[in-house]
Amino acid sequence: MTLTDINPTTRRTFAASLATLPWFGSALAQGMMSGMPEMAGMGGMNAAAVSLAPVTAIAAGAPLAALKKLVNTSPKAGVFRATLRAAPVTVTILQDRTKTEFWAYNDLLPGPLIEVTEGDTVEIEFINDLPQESTIHWHGLPVPSEQDGNPHDAVPAGGRRVYRFKLPLDCAGTYWYHPHPHNHTAEQVFRGLAGLFIVRAKNDPLKAIPERHLVFSDLKLAADGSIPANDMNDEMNGREGQFALVNAQRQPVLTFDAGGRERWRIWNANSARYLKLKLPGARFTLVGTDGGLIGKPVANLTELVLVAAERIEVIVEAPPGAGVVGLVTEPVERGKMGMVPQEFPITLLDVDFSAVRPERLAALASLPQTLRSIRPLGAVKAKKRVVFSEEMSMAGGVHSMKFLVNGKLFDMRRVDLTSRINEVELWEIANDSDMDHPFHIHGVQFQVIERELDGKVTPESLLAWHDMANTRPGETVRIKMVQRHKGLRMFHCHILEHENAGMMGQVNVV
After folding, report:
1. What angle do CA 444, 450, 452 make, to 5 degrees?
2. Which domains does the chain possess?
3. Model confidence over 19-75: pLDDT tens digits?
């Protein structure tokens, strides 16, 4: 939906109201009154009052830090037991030694890495020392509804609870965890609350390859070191901070394994930023998606595109004779509205290949051509349709933006859809808006079947398990899934500001 979709009287009123604001240029307002489709200038109201720190305020060039692991306190084999505490923590991150208050799990940014094996039982005591209620959502993991950190099960400030679940076999993959309280998810994540979760396979065909963990996130900081609230542009387009970080570091240096080959697990832990990763001179081989390994490697990829909250696994081999090469993310067009500044490629980290000898590259063994057996889901028993849309209002002279599912704002008291356990369902995710929206559903992985845009249907070329699927404006994405647990599940856009603004629904599995 753009301004041209609004009736002329409403559009003139909206533009005239904008023209009275000190941050909005009269020329832009006049352009909107004549039918300009962009909602220009929306991001300036609060941004003008907040001076942001320059990108150089955080030092670059330190060695890439390894993720710190959560210690298992259980003496029993097959049981992982630990504590996660969410609380404010003060960190010195700016070069001028200005301190910043984050919210973090166990005082770590990002939160500690949980490593378990498929079939394990997980017991996590959650202590909430935040000033708000919170939960822990185990993003992508096949856990029961009552253990999945839904907003209905919020832990009050000062409270605690134990999450307990047993992981099924064949669920090895790259996951993560983050808060999911109603109306507070976006803020708690942009203040620092997110952690990593790996479920390892009992028999991993790639276990001999050195493994690297790369967590991409961004951070918005004011000049005084504080984390500012969202401005209107953040609420409309999703928050993208001026600092693009890897493992909570700005442009660190990754010293590549001397053997010449690494396995990278990549998390896009941004609230809204999409990634288009390129490593000049190198080729990527895709071996895993959100739900773990794919059936066969996909080689010779020159770029990797990840929507917010998506994870992948890739094999990287050193380019012959390479020295230090920058891993870059290029801008991704996702339909942002308003006065969006020009975007440029960002070097996220420097990869130092200088320790790799040419003879080591020549001696590398071929990758296994069968990684895992994935069968397509069978006959469909039921169909569902989910429509993402946007609605803008200037009621009472105040601008508001609504993000809707099937024409409705999220309501915790309303069940939007009903599914039956163990039945194959076909879901149509339709994007009736002007922005990309990444679809996510809790507690279940799905297979993307096909995409339809402008009347053209394109079958999905890769059979894989996902819990994230991007939808472009005007596009319908068809997916198949089978619910294995009864109970209430959330589905939503994973641009967290859009989720907060109402783009979420609930399916009850019976």
Report:
1. 125
2. 3-41 (no CATH), 79-200 (2.60.40.420), 211-362 (2.60.40.420), 382-509 (2.60.40.420)
3. 333 333 323 332 332 232 233 333 334 445 689 999 999 999 999 999 999 999 999
